[in-house]
Amino acid sequence: MRRTMGVAAASAVVVLVAGCGGGGPQSSGDQKLTGDKIVLGVLNDQSGAYSELSGKNSVAAVEMAIADFTAKYGDKAVTTDITVETADHQNKPDVANSKAQEMYDRKGVDLILDVPTSSAALKVADVAKEKKKLYFNIGAATTDLTGKSCNKYTFHYAYDTYMLANGTGKTTTEQIGKNWYILYPNYAFGQDMEKSFSTAITAAGGTVVGKDGAPFPNTSGDFSTFLLKAPNLNPKPDVLGTMQAGAELVNVVKQYNEFKLRDKGVGLAVGLMFLTDIHSLTPAALAGTTYTDAWYWNFDAKNREFADRFQQKAGTRPTFAHAANYSAALQYLEAVQAAGTDDADAVVKGLEGKTVEDVFLRNGKIRAEDHRVVHDAYLAQVKPQSEVAEPWDYVKVLKTIPAAEAFRAPSADCKL
Amino acid sequence: MSGFAQNTFNGLVSGAFYALLALGLAVIFGMLRVVNFAHGAFYMLGAFGAYVLLSEAGVPFWAALVIMPVGLGLLGMALERAVIHRLTKLDPLYNFLLTFGLTLILQDLVKLRYGVQSSPYETPSLLSGSVDFGLFDFPTYRVFILGFAVLLCVAVWWVLTRTRIGMVVRAATERPDLTRAFGIDVGRWVTPVFGFGIGLAGLAGVLAAPMRAVNPLMGADLIIVVFAVVVIGGLGSIFGSVAAGFGIGLVQAWGEAYLSNFPLVSQTIVFVVMAGVLLWRPAGLFGREEAPA
Amino acid sequence: MLRIENLSAFYGEAQVLRDVSLEVSAGEVVTLVGRNGAGKSTLLRCVMGLHPGQRGTVELDGRDITRLAAHKRARLGLGWVPDDRGSYATLTVTENLTLPPTVGPDPWSLERVYEAFPALYTRRDSAATMLSGGEQQMLALARVLRMGARLLLCDEPTEGLSPLLVQQVGDLLREAKRHGVTVLLVEQNLHFATGVADRHYLLAEGRVAEAMDNSEVRSRERELLAYLGI
Question: Measuring CA to CA, which residue among A60, A54, A120, A91 is closest to residue A321?
């Protein structure tokens, strides 16, 4: 009886302390973790166009990271009470904004992960800045996250438009062909990609002989006007660079094959492509296509080991977004472990300038200047069907792009 | 010159899809006064059905081209009997909302089972080559689509203008009450006409599978343009919907080819045309003002 | 043949017919006269089964048809000549004529129709709405004759017609009557009405105000014309 009373009293104290301390970062003393636990928030597209390349399987990847972290530190872990909150932002900036606020304020989320779609990603960066809470973006491509919209609490983890353009544009120009025709969807992402590609191609000694902004969204689903134009340009382009994504990319590739452009000497390079895109188009439709990948599951034994574990849990092979979500969650937990607190400012201090090595981050470094997480990237080429030895093993890596070259130098626009 | 011919040809191919979809919408609207928002979803089901038949049962394209329109037509008839029928006496808004909700349900059901990622579908091998037109060559499959769609439109036109069924459908479309007063059970024709319209959408879907991304949302984008096509042609005007379908396909293709320096123009050209037509002829190019009740 | 008992009809809240009872015997031609808005057209629509808001009973040949759908009433021998003539723009003249099924024992053949109306024959492949107003009126009458309808419901068949055509409509109705066809006629033209009809009902504010025979109408023509506002 006495013992029960004692426990109850102690609990009451803990609740009271937690209640007082929960209000802000000024909590001190023995209270290292707000609410005595860590909550990771995965905010992404769970039903729309990006739900398969990331979506719910990224939640699974984050859960893997938690399990791995807990297994590694055992009872030395800063806490064993680590949970995941998840929400669907439907790729809408306003939804992303309100869901992010809800996560930080009411769900006690310490770190928001993923957030594809650049406009939504930028909104969440604003929320993170205002709430002084951490945010690792994985799914969005815009370089503004580490440019004019950068802030102290936001990190850009996996890739960006510069990485894609630089990797594919530069290497393809050097190794495959100098003359390019660029087709891009005419909205912020596509325009940004087109500029980045043109810059990278020109810098590598190539020429953009033509470029067209296709309507976005392309309601007719037809790109034949542009595909017919390409082989008739003078000089004839060696490469068609398409910046379309998702279903539009599928349309472009289907019609590229219909008009047999590869037979007419026009190769295909894709701005942004995920493993899931190759799966839905089949490698046969894309054989020979080059693109830049942030990570590939069958690149080496280490990746493969992760991919096997992921497949057991999620039933499919991981895209780079899945691996990056795993890595981001893991590195955050490591940083909290090292700092001994989940206080955002302390964790940021520990992260800045840190060099990291894990299954996703090779030669990784978290830049202090702009919070860009740099790592090796890969120029990949889709295999011909005959070389596909097992399901999902669709590409070969032509070249590893070293971390130092893969990303742009810190931008002067970014003032943390 | 060959560039122009190619762009024109492509415009007609895109137009063929618009025409098939708009034709179905027009007969349904004419007979039921229902704006079938779910038309795009049935187009999607046509394409998806073709994919599922091929990947899970090995049923080839040619069989799918028969199975899907018939199957979806029957589904459409069941749907008309089960729900749409019950709302036709109320404000048309009810059926618009019903079919809108139905669209979301159908999309999500497909999403639940097959995900959002596009599913692969190959061009049937018989049609995978290209046809040489002298000045340029053109994918055989596109030639096939254009020919098939034109043939189908001509067949529908023949049935509507040369048969008793067609006469009854035209009469019931124009003045349902009057037609009942002349001893014709208009209600009996409503269900098959609805099924027929849905079947056309399914057929367009199967035709689209080899050349478009097959995913749960493929109909959602397209249907917006098809609505514009129907409005341009004149709501319920069968000839108007077909003519406007091919016309809009051409306008889009030419816009993309020759106005590519003005992407905003080529992007919105359909709606600019629609606005212009509505200002000039509020009932659409081939539409008539509704007769007083 | 036709018996209407305590018929009331509504447009939303507004009541346009109030407990109307009337009878038309087989082979009779009966007119409904009354001011605009008296409910004459509504009465015909109720008989045809096209007016949803109604109360009371409609009997045809002693059979209660109040709940019967319009197309089934037509098949019992009702022929509808609507006030707007009911021409289909999307149907040719021939199609306009052949659209309704034949419903009576004595239908006109298409040949007979074209013999009687040469103007329709020359325009037989044109859209019906391309015909003149008079021709469209002839088309509407020809259509119900071709059906072989036993009871014609004619809504102002002479409206807007030239005197010559009015004469022709009169001849047609008289000939139909000779063949045993019954006619319920909405008519404002009293002179025409007394020329073809056997009896008349005066409708006022949705009620049957008076039942009159031809001689009574003739003797009170002035008063009636003034009342009708003509």
Answer: A54
